[in-house]
Specification:
Layout lengths: L1 H14 L1 H20 L6 E2 L2 E9 L4 E8 L5 E7 L4 E8 L8 H8 L12 H5 L5 E4 L2 E2 L3 E8 L2 H16 L5 H7 L2 E4 L9 E4 L1 H9 L3 H13 L21 H11 L5 E7 L3 H11 L23 E7 L12 E11 L3 H15 L5 H7 L6 E2 L4 E3 L4 E11 L4 H18 L3 H16 L5 H14 L4 H5 L1 H14 L3 H11 L4 E8 L3 H18 L3 H19 L25 E5 L2 E7 L5 E9 L11 H8 L9 H11 L3 E9 L6 E13 L3 H13 L6 H31 L5 H10 L1 H12 L4 H14 L5 E7 L1 H17 L14 E5 L9 E6 L8 E6 L5 E8 L8 H23 L4 E7 L2 E9 L3 H15 L5 H15 L10 H6 L3 H13 L2 H12 L6 E7 L3 H5 L4 E2 L1
Helix pairs in contact: 1-28, 3-9, 5-10, 12-13, 13-18, 14-22, 22-23, 23-28, 24-26, 25-26, 29-30, 29-31, 29-33, 29-34
The structure holds zinc ion.
Zinc ion binds next to helix 3 and helix 7.
Length: 1025
């Protein structure tokens, strides 16, 4: 078998890759080489080149420039990557918590002098093929990045971005909409009560419902109490209503100026074109100013400080009696010292990462808390870095113990230092990170350099990682106590440290609500009758503006004809290894090998299904073969880029009531470590260790805590999954694996005093899941390495052959579906077919201690291969952009909302939403809007562009061929879908809306996560959880 595969592969190498590989190589050198031609001192479109540096580690050439007239800085990273990126960042250092930089970030995107239509930023999402568009407010800078693979699109977006940040309209109405306003609860009813509204106001209320964020914010404010880090840059909800429109405009004038700007461009497009455009459209209109935005060093304390804060109790905490957090935070050195930052980051990993680190052993394993505190380790996002260490999910009375352990552990580290092998493992991880090709490399670079560059650190030095690695090795050779000395200096002797504890307060939300009410009443009592009338009129005016059809013709746009009619196919080769079907995909992986295996769970007894996610999260972390869990973790770090197992639920692309269930094994490694990586998997298959109850308890606590913490951030996902629960068999399993059902199940497990029952089930699950009889594999590697990878896989399969056993599926209705329609390859999926499945209507409400809601409604529609799927996909995008965004975000005040098509379901959602059931009627109105047919060809084209920018988003070499492997959707099927997308018309959209979305047409499910809700409580059609 193997020989066949190998010879087939060799043939493949000769035939197939030549053409593609060559174009790739050709591109790869040209952008970099062109950039090497620049010389320091050279003048280019108003800029002067300062430095040209090749960075071979990252395959790029960096060109540093400054703008002569304004002092604006520019960094260009020329690299063989068509996913070009632009970003501009400003140093924004507020001195109060009104959220002025954050509200400004929102308002500049509401229209600019050249593009005066409302909300050009959101409109461009639908007129471009961008692969990324966003804006961020950090502690001390605001960044506007976008990326696209299309040159014309790049120029269009650059114009929009430049005009937005330098010449925004900043209309008063934009400020009220995005920031805060007083308005009648029902804007059309003068007698309805006045309330606070505004996008940022609600966004920050939502953000502060997350205890992790509350803690992190307090910690930073208190560790740096003397300047900009003492305030909340995103806005403290109750301070936001102190901001005026005038203050906002003033902040813009001083901070959004070229003299305070840093531009970053990345990719294979020529630098000169970028510079010319930036100069012509923006910089040429400015003179240099002194922005005066530097952050001074934080004065050092002569003695340590302690403080305490409160938060809302967590209804989903794994152990309700243990909800305290405590951590000690240390002020470190200036982040612009690149090597010191590198050393401290590494030191931090050595201290806290993985079961071999001293703090994991000292704090996590004794199970005093459920996990490390939400803020942990090195943080370089402030001018002077910090390091934090502590626990969450602990008892209040254990505070003393935790402080003692922290201090004792530092002493131990100073005494014994770190094992050489752990240091090597970390340096290995850095090597892998440098080689791994991600699709958003430009964006990663932009965020990686942003903080240090913001304070005038050298961004190029930061990119030269292997220089830092070499310097680090030398330092360690010269002084074996190099790291211990750092611990002595930065931790033991450091008096600028803060111990901050946080405990839940039952009346926290009530106090917050009361404070908001008082603030509101204070504002209201200051109003005259004329003011009230004005507020009412402003509310109506805003509503009218929001409801007006907008003329967006001033905005540049790509056309549907700019979209490539065909997609590039990814060549793959099917073979076998040890009787197991394998998909081989040759890719420029830069010396890494990526391995995946899909294992079916069709034979697993159904009562064990809820345990599958738990099994996945522990199977690579409990020890295996001769290795205990510490040694295993060490080997994983030393030899691989990580090993993981995750649950899989894949709805079939042709039948809504069929799906595949299983788990996905995933790992990567440097080519030289292939045998080691497969050895680790062999040990996991042949002799996993499940008997260590203490270890299992630690892992269970951490998983449960992580799930509970994730809800405030991903509440819309939970709402969507729940809404789809009773609509298809896959939806049911998805809820069990990834929904609220799983969160509650893990909480239950975490509360069990004795985990022996769980320990007994793990080997059973393992026997069913890690069975070569139920497996298929995928390997992505370079052409040169593929035959070796295949040989190694073959020998792995031999090693684990003892686990092969033919078992009977627990359900009789299994359909085997070959991935290759000709059926020649042997790669197939075993689908469960539940053709008698009865979808049912269900409305579920989860009451949670949040001030905002997550609302979702899901409609059973059609599978991917159905001819209406394309129309429904375009419909979802069009409704989002043209109706739901306006209703849910602009008028409703939610942070986000829309519709999407996926997994056979058409799903509406809202995110951090002050409304609950009202949003459901907004969804309905969205349907009415479509059914009325009042949309234009332009609306359809825009939705198409937006859908295609997702369809054509770049795929990393590690992930090529994955769709075919996992869901059996071939490139031919994707191309067919592509043609259907092009063909979508006004009529097909109307038909689809009438056929699937009309009331009573299809079964739908509804779910809301949110605070106590009187309306829902009184309505018996709801199930309240
Ligand atoms: Zn925001």
């Amino acid at each position: 078998m193997f020989r066949q595969t190998k010879s087939a592969l060799q043939k493949l190498q000769q035939l197939r890759f030549t053409a593609q590989q060559q174009t790739w190589r050709l591109n790869s050198s040209s952008a970099k080489e062109r950039a090497c031609q620049y010389r320091a001192g050279q003048k280019l479109h108003g800029f002067t080149v300062r430095e040209v540096v090749e960075v071979p580690d990252l395959f790029l050439t960096a060109v540093k420039l400054s703008h002569d007239a304004t002092g604006a800085q520019h960094l260009h990273a020329a690299r063989d990557d068509s996913n070009n990126l632009f970003s501009v960042q400003f140093r924004t250092t507020p001195m109060d918590s009104t959220g002025v930089p954050h509200i400004l970030e929102h308002t500049v995107l509401c229209g600019s002098h050249r593009f005066p239509c409302r909300d050009p930023f959101f409109k461009m999402l639908n007129r471009s093929l961008s692969t990324f568009m966003n804006a961020f407010t950090a502690n001390d800078y605001t960044m506007y990045p976008f990326s696209t693979q299309n040159r014309k699109d790049f120029q269009n977006l650059l114009s929009i971005y430049l005009d937005a940040v330098f010449f925004p309209c900043l209309r008063e109405q934009d400020f009220w909409q995005e920031g805060w306003r007083l308005e009648n609860e029902t804007p059309t009813d003068f007698n309805s009560p006045l309330v606070f509204k505004g996008v940022v106001f609600n966004e920050m209320k939502g953000a502060f419902s997350d205890n992790e964020l509350v803690y992190a914010q307090h910690l930073q404010n208190k560790l740096y109490p003397d300047h900009t880090y003492a305030v909340v840059s995103g806005g403290e909800p109750l301070a936001i209503p102190d901001l005026t429109w005038e203050q906002l405009r003033q902040f813009h004038a001083t901070h959004y100026h070229p003299s305070n700007a840093r531009f970053f461009t990345y990719g294979d497009l020529p630098l000169e074109q970028h510079l010319q455009q930036i100069e012509a459209e923006a910089l040429s209109k400015f003179q240099r100013i002194d922005p005066n935005t530097e952050v001074p060093p934080q004065p050092h304390w002569s003695s340590p400080r302690e403080d305490h804060v409160t938060c809302t109790p967590d209804a989903l905490a794994p152990d309700p009696a243990r909800q305290d957090t405590l951590c000690v935070s240390y002020l470190l050195g200036d982040i612009t010292d690149t090597f010191e930052g590198f050393t401290l980051r590494l030191l931090s990993s050595l201290m806290i990462s993985g079961p071999n680190s001293p703090f994991y052993k000292a704090l996590i394993e004794p199970k005093i808390g459920s996990d490390f505190s939400s803020v942990v380790g090195y943080d370089g996002s402030t001018k002077e870095a910090s390091f934090s260490i502590g626990l969450q999910g602990m008892k209040e009375e254990d505070a003393g113990k935790v402080k003692q352990i922290i201090s004792r552990t530092l002493d131990d580290i100073i005494e014994v230092g770190f094992e050489q092998e752990r240091i090597e493992a970390l340096l290995h991880r850095i090597e892998i990170q440098m080689k791994h090709q991600s699709t958003n490399f430009g964006l990663s670079l932009a965020s990686y350099i942003a903080s240090s560059w913001n304070h005038d650190g050298d961004p190029v030095e930061l990119l030269q990682l292997s220089d830092s690695v070499a310097k680090f090795r030398r330092a360690l050779e010269e002084n074996p106590r190099f790291l211990q000395d750092k611990v002595q200096l930065y931790f033991k002797e450091n008096t600028h440290r803060l111990t901050l504890s946080m405990s839940p307060d039952e009346s926290y939300l009530e106090k917050q609500a009361k404070a908001e009410e008082e603030k509101l009443q204070k504002k209201i009592s200051a109003l005259s009758d004329a003011d009230r009338k004005e507020i009412y009129e402003n509310g109506l005016a805003l509503l009218a503006a929001q409801s007006q059809t907008q003329d967006a013709s001033c905005l540049p746009a790509l056309k549907v004809s700019d979209i490539e009619p065909t997609m590039p196919f990814t060549p793959v080769q099917d073979g076998t290894a040890g009787g197991v079907p394998v998909q081989f995909c040759e890719q420029p992986t830069n010396g890494l090998v990526y391995f995946r295996a899909a294992c079916s769970l069709n034979t697993l007894p159904e009562d064990l299904r809820l345990y599958v996610p738990l099994f996945c999260s522990v199977i690579t972390k409990m020890g295996c073969g001769a290795l205990d869990y510490r040694q295993q973790s060490q080997q994983v770090e030393l030899r691989t880029g990580g090993m993981s197992v995750s649950p899989l639920v894949t709805p079939d692309s042709t039948q809504l009531d069929m799906y595949e269930q299983g788990v996905l094994l995933y790992s990567s490694c440097l080519e030289r470590n292939l045998p080691h990586m497969f050895q680790l998997w062999s040990d996991i298959f042949n002799s996993p260790r499940f008997d260590d109850e203490e270890r299992l308890r630690v892992l269970v606590m951490m998983s449960a805590q992580e799930l509970a913490n994730g809800i405030p951030d991903s509440g819309h996902m939970y709402a969507m999954i729940r809404a789809g629960r009773h609509l298809s068999p896959a939806g049911e399993l998805n809820e069990a694996f990834n929904g609220m059902e799983q969160v509650k199940f893990m909480k239950k497990i975490a509360e069990m005093p004795d985990l022996n029952k769980v320990i007994r089930t793990l080997p059973t699950i393992k026997r069913h899941l890690l069975n070569p009889d139920n497996m298929r594999c995928a390997v992505n590697a370079t052409p040169q390495k593929m035959s070796d990878a295949s040989a190694q896989l073959e020998s792995f399969m031999k090693d684990v052959a003892g686990n092969r056993k033919t078992r009977k599926p627990v359900r009789s209705n299994i359909i085997e579906r070959p991935i290759d329609p000709t059926g020649a390859s042997g790669l197939s999926r075993k689908l469960i077919s539940e053709l008698n499945f009865q979808p049912c209507q269900m409305k579920t409400f989860f009451q949670l201690p949040f001030p905002v809601n997550f609302v979702s409604e899901s409609v059973r529609a059609v599978p991917f291969a159905h001819e209406d799927y394309a129309s429904l996909g375009i419909l979802a995008r069009m409704m989002t952009a043209k109706f739901l965004h306006g209703e849910i975000r602009e008028k409703g005040g939610a942070y986000g909302g829309g519709a999407r098509m996926g997994g056979g379901l058409f799903t509406f959602y809202s995110y951090r939403d002050p409304n609950s059931v009202q949003t459901l009627s907004a969804f309905r109105r969205g349907v009415d809007w479509v059914k009325s047919g009042r949309f234009t060809q332009q609306d359809i084209d825009e939705a198409k562009l937006s859908v295609f920018s997702a369809v054509d988003s770049p795929v990393a070499p590690a992930r090529k061929g994955l769709g075919r492997f996992l869901s059996g959707v071939t490139d031919e099927a994707l191309q067919e879908h592509r043609e259907r997308l092009f063909a979508v018309s006004h009529k097909s959209l109307l038909d689809a809306a009438r056929r699937y979305l009309g009331a009573g047409q299809r079964t739908c499910g509804v779910a809301i996560l949110g605070p106590e809700n009187e309306t829902i409580k009184k309505d018996p059609s709801w199930i309240v959880k």
